[in-house]
Amino acid sequence: MKHLDHSYKEDFQYKHKNPYHDKLQEFSDFVFRDTEGEALKGKWHSDYFKNEKPLTVEVGCGYGEFMRSYTTDHPHENFVGIDYRFKRSYALAKNLSEQEVKNFCLLRAKGERLGFTFGKNEISKLLYFFPDPWPKTRHHKNRLFQAPFIEDAYNLLKPGGKLFVKTDHDGYADWMSELINSPVVQEKFSLELESRNLRADYPEHFLAKYMTKFEKIFISQSIPIKAFVLVSKKV
């Protein structure tokens, strides 16, 4: 499961010609584009949020249903949402601009850049919900949930910090389970929760309470939601 994505390299540069890149500047008080957020590595509490509240990070926040609901319900947490799509990031930014409590930041960036964006022990919760499953075997190399991502999660999470994962895709869930149960991951994380039918097994868990736009579609199609919760063994 080697991941050779150039996005993990120090010299990576974003390349695009999308009009929404410039449009996102309308919300520059809480939206960072490309590598802009990387200047805050290790300084999110001191320089951006200016408090020591726990930091939650969502990779692939999409249309932001979870992000908007969660930040409203948890004003005593800081929240950074990350998404790579331009148009939906702009739509989410517009919605977020109307929220009264400004306990969040939105990054139009790649999940592979986590290690360049956050510092060691800076994150309390890391969320990864309904990623693109890249179902074809030749595209599996594009999946984010691989050893480099797990290594970043371990380095960035505080001792006892948690990684929460949800997917609708059986094949990707199998892929995740195989990696989670490998010795290299078991050395770093304990498995607190694993379910192939989240709402049947853990209906009261916060992962079942909040739904993304895609999750609502999957549930309407009677597709069971697969979930994992990993806890850092760091001391």
Indicate the CATH class.
Answer: Alpha Beta
CATH topology: Rossmann fold
Biggest β-sheet: strands ordered side by side in the sheet = 1-4-3-2-5-6-8-7
**N-to-C series of helices and strands:** HEHEHEHEHEHEHHEHHHE
DSSP strand tally: 8
Shape: globular
Q: Which structural traits does this protein have?
A:
235 residues; alpha/beta; Rossmann fold; 8-stranded mixed beta sheet; 8 strands; 32% helix; globular
Could you walk me through the main structural features you see in this protein, from its secondary elements to its overall organization?
The chain has one domain (17-232): Rossmann fold (3-Layer(aba) Sandwich), CATH 3.40.50.150. The protein contains eleven helices and eight strands. It has helices at residues 19-23, 44-49, 65-73, 86-96, 114-117, 147-156, 170-180, 183-186, 198-201, 206-209, 213-220; strands at residues 31-33, 55-59, 78-83, 104-108, 123-129, 157-167, 189-195, 226-232. An eight-stranded mixed beta sheet has the order 1-4-3-2-5-6-8-7, sandwiched between helices. The longest helix is centred in the middle third of the chain and has 11 residues, at 86-96. It is globular. It starts with 18 loop residues before the first helix and ends with a strand. The relative contact order is 0.15. The model has no long low-confidence stretch (mean pLDDT 95).
